[in-house]
Amino acid sequence: MTGLYDWVQTPAGQHAMIWERAQLDAALADVFGYHALQLGLADMDALAANRMPHRWLALGSQDAPRQAQTGATSTGATRARVALVADPAALPFPAESLDLVVLPHTLELSRNPHASLREVQRVLVHEGKVAITGINPLSLWGFRQWRARQWRRLGLERRLYLPDVGEFISPQRLRDWLRLLEFEVESIAYGCWQPAVRSVRALERFAWLEKAGRRWYPFLGAAYCVLAVKRTQGATLVGPAWLAAPKVAAAPVSIAGRAGPARAPAQNNCETH
Q1: Which segment, 20-24, 40-44, 249-253, is predicted with the most confidence on average?
Q2: How far apart (Å, rounded) are the C-alpha atoms in residues 43 and 59?
Q3: For the whole model, what pTM was predicted?
Q4: d(Cα 70, Cα 153) in Å, to the nearest integer?
Q5: What are the C-alpha distances in Å from 215 to residues 2, 87, 186, 236?
Q6: How many CB atoms lie within 10 A of CB 77?
Q7: Nearest to residue 39, comparing CAs of 118, 115, 105, 134?
Q8: Which residue has the higher pLDDT, 214 or 267?
Q9: CB atoms within 10 A of CB 79
Q10: Alpha helices in the chain (DSSP H)
Q11: Which of 87, 137, 144, 245 sees the fewest Cβ atoms within 10 Å?
């Protein structure tokens, strides 16, 4: 197994995609705005539940030829249509022009995840949101992947359980990156607590671990979904003119520079004879 697009066709990949799609549908259904972008993974229409009038799918140049087809995926969901080809670290959008960006496993496949996340921060408006899904290395799936790589370093051939990407990013590490880029994490959801098995029947046999995992060890879920909002410090929201503060009349100032009550002009007491 080499890449993400091969892995999503496996039973474990399909199980993770179904869970992530449900999380994104619930999290993004009430996110309002005008312009939304999904960056990567055409096998999942991450913006299907969102109601923004302008929604696009962007793929990297190396993934576009393979993922440009439209149709039904193995999960039964409709594959999203590719609108443009773009580098995650150099998006063709002006600064502060998008209201929502979705990154389904995009940072894991990026050559420079820091630069990709900074680019998302640039194109998002103030109060814009970003949704990120990924594989948790601190999980049963992550442990099996780590063990297979250790065997490979010793010269023993072992089949990888997860995609052979550069490095999986833990939710805790991702939270630190987001905080440095002026994002505030609104929610983190975890899923897929089953052992690292390869068959559909085995995954169904351990389905009871989903409920136990959410209760006893939620941070060890193999998949996660993070929703964060951009909160730029010093940003000022401009409101209507009629909301401006009322003008306050200045009080009379005496010669000494202190405000005092207004006095009536002195009357001339001189009498004309």
Answers
A1: 20-24
A2: 11
A3: 0.79
A4: 39
A5: 33, 39, 20, 41
A6: 15
A7: 105
A8: 214
A9: 19
A10: 4-7, 11-28, 64-67, 106-109, 113-123, 140-153, 171-180, 200-205, 208-216
A11: 245
Residues 134-162: tens digit of each pLDDT:
999 999 999 999 998 888 888 887 888 99
CA 204-207-213 angle, 5° bins: 155
Please calculate the CA angle 6-120-13 and round it to the nearest 5 degrees.
Answer: 20
Q: Is the dihedral of CA 208, 209, 212, 215 positive or negative?
A: negative
Q: What is the mean pLDDT of residues 214-225?
A: 90
Average pLDDT over residues 73-79: 49
CA nearest neighbour of 192 among 244, 246, 134, 231:
134
Give the separation between CA 185 and CA 14, rounded to whole angstroms: 27
Residue 72 phi, psi (nearest 5): -95, 140
**Tokens matching residue 169:** 């990013």
Tokens read off for 141: 């799936």
Report d(CA 59, CA 97) in Å as an integer: 19
Enter the CATH code of domain 4-230: 3.40.50.150
User: Which residue matches tokens 């995926």?
Assistant: 73
Q: Say what percent of the chain tops pLDDT 70.
A: 77
The pLDDT of residue 240 is: 46
In sequence order, the β-bridge partners of residue 35 are 54
DSSP symbol at 84: E
Tokens representing 160 are 């990888």
Measured in whole angstroms, the distance separating CA 154 from the mean position of its chain's CA atoms is: 37
